[in-house]
Amino acid sequence: MLQLDRIDLREIDMTLRWPFETSFGRTTNRRILIVRVYDRSGAIGYGECTAGEDPFYNHETIDTAWLIITGFVIPMLKDAGISDAAETSGALARIRGNLMAKGGVEAAIWDLEAKMADRPLWKHLGGTQTELACGVSIGLQSTTAQLIEKIRREVERGYQRIKIKIKPGSDIELVKAVRAEFPTIPLMVDANSAYTLNDAELFEQMDASNLMMIEQPLTPGDLIDHAKLQRQLRAPICLDESILSLSDARQAHEIGACRIINVKLGRVGGHKEARSVQEFALAKGIPVWCGGMLESGVGRAHNIAMSTLDGFTLPGDVSASERYWDEDIIDPPVTVSPRGTITPPRGPGIGYEVNEKRVEALVVRREEIKL
Ligand code: OSB
Ligand code: MG
Fold this sequence. Notes:
Layout (H helix, E strand, L loop, with lengths): L3 E19 L2 E15 L4 E6 L12 H19 L7 H4 L7 H18 L4 H4 L7 E2 L2 E3 L5 H14 L4 E4 L6 H10 L5 E4 L9 H7 L7 E2 L7 H10 L4 E3 L6 H10 L4 E4 L7 H14 L3 E3 L6 H11 L22 E2 L9 E2 L10 E2 L1 H7 E8 L1
Parallel strand pairs: 5-6, 6-7, 7-8, 8-9, 9-10, 10-11
Antiparallel strand pairs: 1-2, 1-15, 2-3, 4-13, 12-14
Helix pairs in contact: 1-3, 9-10
Bound molecules: 2-succinylbenzoate and magnesium ion.
The site of 2-succinylbenzoate has 10 residues, from loops.
């Protein structure tokens, strides 16, 4: 039984090995919020808040998350006196939105509980898969030739699915060029909400390139428009930004807004909701996969644990630490086999050791709160 004692937040500053560009912006440095939860027994759990630096992917940022966690999440957990990890999201239900803020803390409490039970987090969550298929997400590049070189390298490393980013002006010609170079690879695009239904014809043209899926073409709230677009396309639409909860998944499915769902742990507020989305999708025959937010090893380890659940049947954006960082903050770093797979770890909790020395060297802000 959990008896939470205190929580500390640390912001670490990590430089990406390569800048990552999407339709909403370019990231060179990650400001990452690491959550550490202490039990009275002395056990420790780790989580990562996946909010970005700017409110461009969604409304949250690391700074808003910091305020919500210190001002509301921790005080409400203190009042609730939770005794197991599954109670966390209920205790925080009155907080609207701010799912990444809540999710970072919720994930840390799941790690803590799994460690106290001395079992791997993935088993504790009910996961069964022992080899996970990996894909990669490749950002916008300055030239098509550069993009093609990047894709070639990832295909050679064994990654099982390639996702490229598109934005207005870098879309149909880019996709055609990539498809011409790689006629048979599993290929998909992610628009990060950069289009409207007026662009339907563009997507119809793209449909000729045999895409595995088209991720989040339209604005997050536009489920009806996604349903209209889906009816005009052969390729499945995959929703990312639109799906914040089980309820969103259910409504998207009911109106036919997507045929695939990208599940991001932070975006849905933690492991409990992620598991519910996955369970619903499995029951309805909707494949899901794990999305990424350029996480450090802590967030990456949580993504691996989540991806072992039965509904995660497509390769995710969970790839090796070396694609992001010169040196990750976990030991060992996440590695991918030559056939493009990750084996979930055997140790308790997230199953990777957090390199505290490394974390401390990167800390730029901290706050500790007693429960
Ligand atoms: O839309 O999936 C996305 C990164 C930051 C914000 C949004 C997205 C992404 C990615 C990168 O595609 C996934 C990763 O490699 O972590
Ligand atoms: Mg996406």
